[in-house]
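ok so i was messing around last nite and threw this chain in just to see what happens. nothing serious, just curious
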Amino acid sequence: MTLTLNLSPELEQYLLQEANQQGLSVEAVALQLLVSSLLLKQKQTEAVNLLQSWIDDEDDQEQQETGLYLIHALDDDRLSERKLFPSELKGITW
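result:
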């Protein structure tokens, strides 16, 4: 596909500088930037969909077990003896 773009002078200057720094043509740099932007958007969408599927999961028992496991793992894997989630503060600070 051939694409014609009208760039602002600032954007054109940025694109030229990037091309010079990378030793590539302006077209190659523009294509790289477009591809990386689209791939990032795709990865973000996949991450959002995954998080949403976790939110939509209605297995409350599994979520509680996972939460307790994480709390214990975070408390056990500390150099300090001070707990992040002391049981006496459950329901007060966490």
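not much to say yet. Helices lie at 9-22, 26-56, 60-76.
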